[in-house]
Amino acid sequence: MAVRFLALASALMLLLHCTHAAAPPIFQQRQSAKTWCVANPSADDARLRANLDFACSESDCSAILGTGGCSVRYGGVLLSRASVAMNAYYQAMGRNSWNCFFNGTGLITITDPSLGTCKYA
């Protein structure tokens, strides 16, 4: 009886090990899904401006400048402009959670925040 139990337990352990080893890590599964970084709506204007300035100094903010689809000329408000800039930085830096932190004012979303002519990368 003990031998059967040991044989069964060994077979189950081997099966679990093989199944687990073949599965890709959860981190890789999440990385393959598209995500965006947006500004937290409760962030104050000073933080949003600081986020916008920093993100645009490190990434391409053409979407919110001049005639871009998210520019002030086309109704872009500070919250949406900061979100576009923060997302540009987040995408350029590899979509790591820490690249959307922005001192606690960034949020990662799995829903595309693009709206009208304002397209998120």
Can you tag this structure with a few keywords?
121 residues, single chain, two-stranded antiparallel ribbon, mainly alpha
Give me the secondary-structure topology.
Layout: H1 2-22, H2 26-32, E1 36-39, H3 45-58, H4 78-92, E2 106-109
Antiparallel strand pairs: 1-2
Helix pairs in contact: 3-4
Give an account of the 3D structure:
This protein has four helices and two strands. The chain has a two-stranded antiparallel sheet with strand order 1-2. It is globular.
Q: State the strand order across the main sheet.
A: 1-2
Strand content: 5-15%
Structural class, please?
Answer: mainly alpha
| Overall mean confidence score, pLDDT | 79
What composes the largest sheet?
2 strands, antiparallel
Radius of gyration: 22 Å
* Helix and strand run: HHEHHE
Q: Which consecutive residue ranges, at least 5 long each, have pLDDT under 50?
A: 5-30
The termini sit apart by 62 Å
**Gross morphology:** globular
Counting DSSP E segments of at least 2 residues, the number of strands comes to 2
Q: What is the count of helical runs?
A: 4
Helix content: 40-55%
